[in-house]
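Running this now, will post back.
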Amino acid sequence: MSAPVVKLAESIDALEPSAISCQHSAAQALTIVRDGVITGEGPTTRGRVHFSRALDAFDAEWCARILTAAAVDDQPISRAEAEALFEINDAAAERSDEGRFDDLLAKAVVHHAASASGLPVPLRTVALAPDTAIESWAPTQAVGVDTEVLEWIAGQMRGKRRGNGTLMALVATLIGAATLPLAQLPNLFDIGL
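Update: finished.
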């Protein structure tokens, strides 16, 4: 582990495990990361140069550590946590995280969608790990996936300046042409690419 990563790990120990005792607290912690991305200031940016509206590897690491804290590891990703990740995605005009945040966002949103639909999901540490392929655990068919959850995801993605190709492909796979009438598909995927 590099010195900056070690320093980051030490600095977020204050958030684990007592402060992140539930999904609500994790969602609140993610808003602190979002604020740091927006302003370039705050507890998540201390000790390093951070420009406003920029997301770097340390920000992605913050998100991963918050989402996989021991207190929430066995719980599914909540809608509040997924919404906070979408807000971080929207706030970051510049990226220097080598795709880690996009991977984390896609996996977290699909984890939420599957669990909200009553489908089994792995522990967060497994599902969100960079070396775990999302295809190894994510649903591959629309059978059993709640259409309200899929509509919520599409609403989050609609009109955004930055799309997530992995998430879009998975949602398209889950929906399938047979799940919704063809007339609804253009509205569902109007995400402003």
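The chain has nine helices and two strands. More later if anyone needs it.
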